[in-house]
Design brief:
Elements (H helix, E strand, L loop, with lengths): L15 E5 L3 H13 L3 E5 L2 H11 L3 E5 L7 H10 L8 E5 L4 H9 L4 E4 L4 H17 L1
Parallel strand pairs: 1-2, 1-3, 3-4, 4-5
Helix pairs in contact: 2-3
Length: 138
């Protein structure tokens, strides 16, 4: 088994995670997984909703769905990365598409990782650990 037990709660306590997705089911699933692991979770329905919440809550890592109304995930990621205050905040794209084009486009707007939906609890927690704990150690 690689990486040990990713559900070890002590590592993730106090980490602020934002989940931006227009699907209530996806938001709630992610929230349950993350809260069980000790994270503080901020939810947003779309990019517009997220932008004010990012300023208010200053999350440590942001998960953003690609396909959303109004501001899609690419536009939302680009806005986050262009903001001087949040450009170093890790952004993980979430998508049901697993094509090379989508991954490359995500990288072009500054995303740090790409997770395919449906994600598992372990893949979500691994992404948090990878991006947040590595930055805390640096």
């Amino acid at each position: 088994m690689l990486g040990g037990n990713v559900t070890d709660q002590s590592n993730l306590a106090g980490i602020k995670v934002m989940v931006i997705d227009d699907s209530n089911t996806i938001r709630r699933s992610a929230e349950i997984f993350l809260v069980q692991s000790g994270c503080e979770v901020i939810l947003a329905e779309d990019g517009f909703d997220a932008m004010s919440k990012i300023t208010d809550h200053q999350p440590n890592v942001i998960f953003v769905d690609i396909m959303m109304p109004r501001l899609d995930g690419y536009q939302t990621c680009m806005l986050i990365k262009k903001n001087q205050r949040f450009r170093d905040t890790p952004v993980v794209m979430l998508s049901s598409k697993d094509g090379l084009f989508d991954r490359v486009r995500g990288r072009m707007v500054g995303s740090d990782e790409y997770l395919t939906k449906p994600f598992t609890k372990d893949s979500l927690l691994q992404a948090v650990k990878k991006h947040v704990l590595s930055r805390q150690a640096a």
